[in-house]
Each structure stands twice: as C-alpha cells, then as structure tokens.
Amino acid sequence: MAGFSDFLENKLLAHAFSNSAYTSPSAVYLGLFTAAPSDSGGGTELSGSGYTRKAASFTTSGAASTNAQAVEFPTATGNWGTIKAVGIFDAASSGNFLGWSNLASDRTIETGDVFRFPAGDVDITLD
C-alpha cells in the first residue's frame, strides 16, 4: 500500500500511545479508482456500470498482510475507464477510507471485462 489514510493513522496512533480503544473492522472492502486518492481521501472511485466494492480477507505474517483469496469485481456492464489505484474501506459503501495504493500498471476496463486481484496480489506492509 502506498499509504494508510489519515483516519487509520490517527486511530492507530491513539490506540497505541494514548490508550484509546480502536476496534478493527469486521470486514474490509477493496474499491477501484480512476484518479488516485491520497492519505486524506479524495480521488475518483468508480460508480455505476455494475461496479461494487468487493470484500477481501487478509492474512498477516510479520509486518505484512496479503489478500488470502482472489478478489474479483463484477463484470463491467459499461466502460469503467482506466483503473489507476485501489483503496481499502471498512464498509461496502460509504464507511471509512483505510488506505490506498497505485496499481503497478493502469488497466482499462471496458464493457464485459472483469477486474481481478489474484490471491497474494494486494500487500499491505509496515516498515
């Protein structure tokens, strides 16, 4: 991931250093962006043409978490445009933005295409 969101950074810092409880989300969802967000949010998440965020499960080992299974988005019912980034959220719609990363290479999705992250393709690391 390129970065944790300001929301998540603030929650984790308060939890670790100020004894402020933070409950991790019961599920996380991947979202696709045609314009990349930043730590403060923004960007342009897809909408319409069959797009929905997809639930993802992660396994953690050491300082890295990786998607445990493939994450496949619905078949595009219209042109989605060029996907540039992925974001992680704590809800299937709305919710809190947790983090983001640019894709290794942009991917254009047209009517009938399916966007998929194979298992082990989404890595979240701390250094």
Descriptive key words:
127 residues, 1 helix, three-stranded antiparallel sheet, 9% helix, mainly beta, six-stranded antiparallel sheet, globular
Written overview of the protein:
The chain is built from one helix and eleven strands. The strands form three sheets. Strands 1, 2, 3, 4, 8 and 9 form a six-stranded antiparallel beta sheet that branches. Strands 5-6-11 form a three-stranded antiparallel beta sheet, with no helix packed on it. The model has no long low-confidence stretch (mean pLDDT 95). The chain has 127 residues and is mostly beta strands. β2 and β3 form a beta hairpin.
SSE arrangement:
Blueprint: E1 3-4, H1 6-17, E2 28-35, E3 44-45, E4 54-56, E5 58-61, E6 64-67, E7 71-72, E8 81-89, E9 97-109, E10 116-117, E11 123-125
Antiparallel strand pairs: 1-9, 2-3, 2-4, 2-8, 5-6, 6-11, 7-10, 8-9
How would you sum up this structure in a few lines?
By secondary structure, the chain is mainly β. The protein is globular, with a radius of gyration of 15 Å.
Helix content: under 10%
Runs in which pLDDT lies below 50 for 5 or more consecutive residues are: none
Strand content: 35-45%
Distance between the termini: 11 Å
Structural class: mainly beta
Name the average pLDDT.
Answer: 95
Helices and strands, in order, run as: EHEEEEEEEEEE
Shape verdict: globular
Radius of gyration: 15 Å
Q: Please give the number of β-strands.
A: 11
